[in-house]
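Sample intake sheet
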Amino acid sequence: MIDERNGGGNRPESSYDEGADFWGDAARQRRRGRRSYEQPGNFAATDGSKANGSIDYGAGPPGGFGAGYDAGPTTGFGAGYDAGSPGGFGIRSAADAGAEVDTVNYAPLPLGKKRRPIIRNFWLYTLSFAVPFLLVAIAFVAMQFYPIGDRTPLTVDLYHQYAPFMSELRYKILNGESLLYSWHGGLGMNFLAVFTYYLASPLNALLLVFPISGLAIAIILLIVIKIGLMGLFMGILLHRGVMAFTEPGIGAIGSGGSAKGGTAVAPRRRLLRLRSIERAGRLGAEERNRRLYEREVDTRRGHTYLVIVGATLFALSGFMMAYFWDVMWLDSIYLLPLVILGVILLVRKGNLILYPIAIASAVAVNYYIGFFVALFTALFFISYLIYVWPDLRTERSRPIRIAALRIFQFVLMSALAAGITAFLSLPTWMALQMTSAAGDSFPKNHKFEFTVLEFMTRHLISMKPSIRDGLPNIYAGLISLLALPLYVFNRRIRLREKVASLSLLAFLFLSFNSNYLNFIWHGLHYPNQLPYRYSFLYSFVLVIIAVRALMNLRYLKKGIALGA
């Protein structure tokens, strides 16, 4: 593109890669480039012909950047993204209210070969998987699990039901038999209903690698892999979703958005330091929003260790340690972070790809835990939309219109996901109508199950897991509990965010305590032992809150931090 106003400088289309790392070579290139005024690709100085004189620095080949400013006495700077040039900065200046405004664009220097975010953060995500994977593997070795010793995790229903079902699935696949019916259980049984609840995980293909005598080893390996995947996907959510869209101003979307109509500001863009913004005469919506960008900011800089910490806390939470032997539940749980990341991208950017795929997968691999995930996702969407809707604006649309569009997109994508999984969910629903679970009636009298003090003790170390009965398994590391007051009293964190996240946490607590809500959460059914089967959702929210608190710990007053 050519800047015709100045008669010359090329303004290249930005080749900005949202996932590129600008803290390394690219930053050094810029520092070197700013000291060379005659070389192609840096600056070219030309005399202007405007009323009060101007010097326009035009960019050369791709990789330079152009800036224009008036030399008048009341120069003020405001900045806004150019909606037509992804990654471009527009720098506006005026000598007075009636002066002509020059707008040129800042485009980053070439960043070399582009790399996908997953590849660039390979070691970060690898550690998010490896740390919980290895910790569980070491624990199994210490407990003398087979083949190290003569013990196995096959206990309760894993021994009586799940392992025989896995053996039957392996037999059917290797012998080419139908998955609709089985003659190996009593006088025969509907195997499709068994498959959709117990065996739909694609990771069960691992069973084919081992002989039937090695079934215990295969199950142990499935458990540690699934717990590792919980850490991996939680790490991706924390890095790409929670940390990327939570700093004040990052994703405060009032300045144009992306060229494709999205409304989120790329969080890792190298931001220009605006030292003169306070001298601007009348600040429009763009300039007011840009006040938040007075320094170069990357919300994840210096906080990547929290990705691994948060991923490990979630993957090794009290729920996982109590119910890891319910191996068929773990698939929907490790997909939960991807579902929530899909919701964040849908609300922030209008991205309609990840959410329907993730929620459909979570329901397909286990419809029971998938129901918990779907219900929680609806609650999260409502709370998250309330948190961000004032920032959902573009040059052409107001927040309320974009919020209405996001609601429509969420409902549409949820319906699409339901349609994708209908080939499994409909036959399963019909089969469930012939079971005893379909006859449970709604509780007649409301009651609360425990006190707040009893509930708070479940956050502490060395609390015995509840398996057959007891209180919810909500332990997610003592640090998660200690970070809660740090989150509440941190002024850096927006009040809207606190209200949204803490309301979600409070509703989950109320769901545990109220027999009405607990009955609804369990699919209008009284569970047989293994209480509060959705308590992993509480740990999930608690870990996110802890990460947000630790990210902003330096902004907390010392007295408040020590008191908390």
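Comment: Confidence is low (pLDDT under 50) at residues 1-112, 247-283, 290-298. The CA atoms of residues 492 and 555 lie 6 Å apart.
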